Amino acid sequence: MADSQELTRLLHATATGDRRAFAELYRESSSHLFGLLLRMLQRRDWAEEALQDCYIKIWQKAETYDAEKGAPLTWLLSVARYRALDLLRMKRPEVEMPDGDDDFSLPPLTLHDEAEDPMARAVEGQGIARMEACLRELPKEQRDALLLAYYEGYTHQELAVRLKAPLGTVKSWVRRGLARLRDCLDE
C-alpha cells in the first residue's frame, strides 16, 4: 500500500478531476475499504455495492479531505464506515440487537489483498497484531463500545441500549477508548 504522503497526493489530484490519480487511489486503498465493509456488512454483495458508492463519494468529495485533520486512509475508511452504517440502517432495520450478557471477542482484523506481495502482508500483519494487543489493553467497557461501534456499526444510542448504560457514559467510553488506542498505537 502507498504511504500517507502518496495517498494525500492522490486525493488532492483526484479533487482536481485527475482520473489516473483516482484509479491509482482505488488500487492502493480499495482492499482496505472492502475489508472494513465486508466485516461490517457481513455480506459480500452489500460490501461490493457499498465500495462502489464509497468511491463515487470519494470522487465527488475528495476536495474536502484535509491532511491536517487526519491521515488519508483514516478519511477513506470513515467514508466507508459511514456508507456501511447507512446501508445497515436501510437494509437491516428489522434486526434486533443481541442480549448484553455475552462476552465480546475481537473480530478478525484482516485487511490484506491476496494480490499483494508477501512483504506487504507481513508488515500489515504486524500492524494488525499491534492493534489487537492495544485493544486487549483497553478496559472491557471501552473495548466493547469501540468494537460494537466500529465493527458492528452501532450508533451511540444503540450502544447505550446494548450495553445498558447512559448515553453520555457510552460516548465517554468511545472517546476515551479511542484516545487510549491512539496512545497505545503511537508507542
Describe this protein with a few key phrases.
187 residues, Arc Repressor Mutant, subunit A, mainly alpha, globular, Rna Polymerase Sigma Factor, Chain: A, 71% helix
CATH topology of the largest domain: Rna Polymerase Sigma Factor, Chain: A
Shape: globular
Structural class by secondary-structure content: mainly alpha
Q: What CATH first level of the largest domain would be assigned?
A: Mainly Alpha
Question: How many strands, which pairing sense, and closed or not: the largest β-sheet?
Answer: none
Radius of gyration: 17 Å
How many DSSP H or I helices? Answer: 8
Poorly predicted tracts of residues: 93-105, 109-115
* N-to-C SSE string, H for helix and E for strand: HHHHHHHH
The CATH architecture assignment of the largest domain turns out to be Orthogonal Bundle
Overall number of domains: 2
Mean pLDDT: 81
Helix percent reads over 70%
CATH superfamily of the largest domain: RNA polymerase sigma factor, region 2, helix turn helix motif
Q: How far apart are the termini?
A: 22 Å
Number of strands: 0
Q: Can you tell me about this structure?
A:
With 187 residues, this protein is mostly helical. The chain has two domains: 4-89, Orthogonal Bundle (Rna Polymerase Sigma Factor, Chain: A), CATH 1.10.1740.10; 138-186, Winged helix-like DNA-binding domain superfamily/Winged helix DNA-binding domain (Arc Repressor Mutant, subunit A), CATH 1.10.10. The protein has helices spanning 4-15, 19-41, 44-61, 72-91, 118-137, 140-151, 156-163, 167-186. The longest helix has 23 residues, at 19-41. The chain is globular, with a radius of gyration of 17 Å. The two termini are 22 Å apart. The model is unreliable at 93-105 and 109-115 (pLDDT under 50).
